[in-house]
Design goal:
The chain has 302 residues and is mostly helical. It contains twelve helices and nine strands. Bound molecules: protoporphyrin IX containing FE.
C-alpha cells in the first residue's frame, strides 16, 4: 500500500517526469507552431496525476474534459448547457467507482488502492471516495496546467527574465516561485469564522464568510517590493498561491512545484525563443485564473 514516497521513489518519479517533459518539449519543437496549453501545459500534470492516482494514462483526456467542464462552468466555450458541470461530475464518479472495483479485485501501488483500503478500522464511503477523486483529478491538473501556461506567457512578455533563466538554470527554483506569485492560478477560497475575530482592525463576526483573494495578497506592496515586477530572482517570496498555511494548505504544492521546476529547467535548456503567434485566450471564471489557449512558436536552442 502506498503510504508516501521514499527518497529513492522520489528520484525515480522525478526522472520519469523529466523524460515526459523532455518528450513534450521536443515534440513541440519539431512541430514548430503549437497551442502550448494543449500540447505541453495540460499534458505533464495530466500524465503525472493519472499515474500517481492510478487512472489509465490513455484515459487522461477524459479527466481533462471533465475538469474543463466543471471549472469552466461560467465560460461559454465549455458550457452551453447549465447541467453540463453536474453531468461531468457524475461521469467522473461513475468512472472512479469502476476503477475502485478493479482495484478491489486487483490492488496496485497507487492512490486509488490506498483510498479504498481500511485505515485504523475506518474506510471511506463511496461518496467520500468519489469526492476525493474529483478533488485530486481536478486540483491535480487544472491548477498546474495554468501555472505552466502563466509562466510561459510571463517569459514571453519578459524576455530579459527568460534570458536570465537560460543563462543560469539554477535560478529555476526561485523562477517557479515567482511564476506562482505572478500567475496565481487560484483566485480565491473562502473561510467561515467560527467565532468573532479581529484582523487588521476589522471585526469579522462568527458565521461570516470571508473571501481570500490570493492575487491581491500576492501583489501586496506591504509584503513585496516592486510587486508588479516579474523578477525570477525574487527572494524572499512569501506568496500565498497554495493558500496561507493551516490545515487546508494545498496537498499537491510539492508535486506542482516539482513538475514546474522540471518543465522550466528543460525548456530553458532546449528552447531558444518562445514567440506568440496568436491571441491568448483567458478562462471566464471567478475561481480559476486560467489560460485556454496560448499559440506559440518554439525555436530550438543552438
Ligand atoms: C500550481 C498548482 C496548484 C495551485 C496554485 C494550488 C492551489 C491550491 C489552493 C489555493 C488551495 C486552497 C488552500 C486553502 O484553502 O488554504 C489548494 C488546496 C488543495 N489542493 Fe492545490 N494547488 C495546486 C496544485 C495541486 C495539485 C497538483 C494537487 C493534487 C495532487 C492539489 C490538491 C489539492 C487539494 C487536495 C487541496 C485541498 C486541501 C484541503 O482542503 O485539505 N493541488 N490548492
Amino acid at each position: 500500500m502506498n503510504r508516501g514516497f521514499t527518497p529513492k521513489a522520489m528520484r525515480m518519479l522525478e526522472s520519469h517526469f523529466r523524460d515526459v517533459a523532455v518528450s513534450l518539449i521536443d515534440e513541440a519543437l519539431e512541430t514548430g507552431e503549437i497551442d502550448f496549453v494543449d500540447k505541453v501545459s495540460a499534458e505533464l500534470p495530466l500524465i503525472a496525476i493519472a499515474e500517481l492516482v492510478g487512472i489509465p494514462v490513455e484515459d487522461r483526456r477524459k479527466v481533462f474534459d471533465w475538469s474543463n467542464t466543471m471549472i469552466g462552468s461560467t465560460d461559454p466555450d465549455f458550457n452551453q448547457d447549465p447541467n453540463a458541470p453536474m453531468i461531468a461530475s457524475m461521469e467522473l464518479y461513475a468512472y472512479s467507482n469502476e476503477l475502485a472495483l478493479q482495484r478491489k479485485a486487483e490492488p496496485k501501488d497507487d492512490i486509488i488502492t490506498t483510498l479504498i483500503s481500511e485505515h485504523d478500522g475506518d474506510v471511506l464511503s463511496e461518496h467520500e471516495f468519489d469526492l476525493f477523486m474529483l478533488l485530486l483529478a481536478v486540483a491535480g491538473n487544472e491548477t498546474t496546467r495554468n501555472g505552466i501556461s502563466h509562466g510561459t506567457l510571463a517569459m514571453i512578455e519578459h524576455p530579459d527574465q527568460w534570458a536570465k533563466l537560460k543563462a543560469d538554470t539554477s535560478l529555476v527554483t526561485s523562477a517557479v516561485e515567482e511564476i506562482l506569485r505572478w500567475g496565481t492560478p487560484v483566485n480565491n477560497f473562502a473561510r467561515t469564522a467560527v467565532c468573532d475575530v479581529e484582523l487588521h482592525g476589522i471585526t469579522i463576526k462568527e458565521g461570516e464568510t470571508v473571501s481570500m483573494l490570493y492575487p491581491s495578497a500576492n501583489r501586496d506592496e506591504a509584503v513585496f517590493s516592486n510587486p508588479d515586477t516579474f523578477d525570477i530572482t525574487r527572494n524572499p517570496n512569501p506568496h500565498v498561491t497554495f493558500g496561507g498555511g493551516g490545515p487546508h494548505f494545498c496537498l499537491g504544492a510539492n508535486l506542482a512545484r516539482l513538475e514546474m521546476r522540471i518543465l522550466f529547467e528543460e525548456m530553458a535548456k532546449r528552447v531558444d525563443s518562445i514567440e506568440l503567434t496568436g491571441e491568448v485566450r483567458k478562462l471566464r471564471s471567478s475561481f480559476i485564473h486560467g489560460i485556454k489557449t496560448l499559440p506559440v512558436r518554439l525555436r530550438p536552442a543552438k
